[in-house]
Amino acid sequence: MPIHRWSGSNPRESDDSFMIILGIESSCDETAAAVVEDGTRVLSSIVSSQVKIHHKYGGVVPELASRKHVEAVVPVVSSAIREAGIEMDALDGVAATQGPGLVGALLIGFSFAKSFAFARNIPWVGVNHLEGHINSVFLGEDPPDFPFVALMVSGGHTNIYHVTSHTEYELMGQTRDDAVGEAYDKVSKMLGLGYPGGLVLDRLAGDGDPKKIDFPRSWLEKSGFDFSFSGLKSAVNRCIQLHGDEYSQADIAASFQESVVDVLSYKIISAAKRKRVKNLAVVGGVAANSRLRQRVTAEAKKRGMKVHIPAVDLCGDNAAMIAARGYHHLKAGDESPLTADVYSRPKVTTGFPHK
Ligand code: KG4
Ligand code: ZN
């Protein structure tokens, strides 16, 4: 792939040249670095996962996560630059996740990015992790046109946004209790299948009957876009306690998943109808779910809508999405000062911007 180098000393001097951004992500238990051209073409994307380390504790241990980021950050960044096939001088800017996430974990990637940019005298910017997930949809072959409605489903969030540009998002709805990925992880734990639970339940559900158990669908107000998964989680728990011997694990997984997917697919379609848009996006770790991808795609097709879902390896936490979002910040001249700090929670909870 030909690499176009930035010709000016400052990215804002010219609008039509290509910009190559190094992205860094360390908000939770993945140390990731990526090199992305123009916010769309992934030249490399390296993810070093700590899943095996945290698995035995049944969840992420924050201090362990920070220590592992310290060990991984330099090798991961070096691999990303090497795999991109570029010289270090070709980088026009650096983007690192600023929040939300675990503070000790965020600080490793964020401080590294700051020092790297300072040493190389290139611009850098802190990126909101959720905005990164939304921008992951521009990394594929078939990016959506604006405006579109995005369903963001991860371990920490279940949100619906109306997205009108790379920088403008309106939060239409969010979970009132557990995030959907969190519900997968908890159900997996109840079944003794460990952490994280999404992929394992997704695979297990493939062998089960989604109609076997009629778990509740938490619609809340059917015309609204908020979610709730704690009732479903309790229903699964009760079912395992009372009828664990009657049903197979595969049937429990498939029936749980069907309840989740029914609600998620219904709400994203009705959000698109409300906003009168034809383009939909599904992003975040749970967007890797095979049943969700299948159902949203089919439901949208029936209504003449189109769904854009990133490749599975760009659904979970990665740095390519951070570079993609950082590109738009830097292109607009929005750089972070060297005094910038990380944040654990969004300061604004009703819409973007979160910082
Ligand atoms: O976006 P992500 O990597 O990290 C956060 O920002 O939270 O999402 C992680 C979540 C975990 O809860 C994991 O169980 C879930 O995504 N997940 C899945 C699948 N793959 C990962 N959930 C359902 N089906 C999957 N195939
Ligand atoms: Zn994430």
Looking at the structure, what is the overall shape? globular
- Helix count equals 10
- Topology as a string of helices (H) and strands (E): EEEHHEHEHEEEHHHHEHEH
Strand order of the largest sheet: 3-2-1-4-5
Tell me the Rg in angstroms.
20 Å
Mean pLDDT over the residues: 91
**Helix/strand class:** alpha/beta
Strand content: 15-25%
**Ions and ligands:** 5'-O-[(R)-(carboxyoxy)(hydroxy)phosphoryl]adenosine, zinc ion
Structural descriptors:
355 residues, binds 5'-O-[(R)-(carboxyoxy)(hydroxy)phosphoryl]adenosine, disordered N terminus, alpha/beta, binds zinc ion, five-stranded mixed beta sheet, disordered C terminus, single chain
Structural write-up:
By secondary structure, the chain is an alpha/beta fold. The protein has ten helices and ten strands. Strands 3-2-1-4-5 form a five-stranded mixed beta sheet, sandwiched between helices. A five-stranded mixed beta sheet has the order 8-7-6-9-10. Strand 6 and strand 7 form a beta hairpin. The two termini are 36 Å apart. The model is unreliable at 1-14 and 348-355 (pLDDT under 50). The site of zinc ion has 6 residues, from helix 4.
